[in-house]
Design goal:
Length: 138
């Protein structure tokens, strides 16, 4: 699963972080003005998660439930729908640089640890906290 392989399986990443990543990606075509709602983009993860499971779908729902420590698929679907609806609010629709310009996004300890591991490569980088997540930018 692309989302999981790119955004999740690193120490310091939380269920909330994964769900925020999914919602942020689902809003890509909305932010660019191609569609007004993520459900209108035919290839969106939003449509796949919100719709009935498909044979050969790209999103592994079972793995997503496991990563989120959630047993009830409906609860997870509703949380993702609510995050997307919140992202549609006028003040939330703008691109958020932390998701596209940072090299690490997660908990504060995760961002600090990543900076430390990078050593001299991250010498000029800064760790920034916004809401429940922190990011490392170079």
């Amino acid at each position: 699963m692309f989302l999981i392989s790119r955004f999740y399986p690193q120490k310091g990443r939380t269920k909330e972080h994964l769900l925020q990543c999914i919602a942020y990606i689902d809003m890509s075509m909305v932010r660019t003005g191609v569609v007004k709602h993520p459900s209108k983009w035919p290839l969106s993860g939003y449509r796949e998660i919100q719709g009935p499971p498909k044979i050969g779908g790209l999103i592994d729902r079972r793995s997503l439930l496991e990563l989120c420590c959630e047993k009830d698929e409906r609860v997870l679907i509703n949380v993702l729908a609510e995050l997307s609806e919140q992202a549609l609010l006028p003040d939330k629709k703008a691109r958020d640089a932390k998701w596209s310009e940072s090299i690490a996004v997660g908990s504060l300890p995760f961002a600090k640890e990543t900076k430390e591991k990078l050593g001299v490569k991250a010498k000029g980088g800064g760790v920034y906290t916004s809401g429940a997540s922190s990011s490392l930018s170079l």
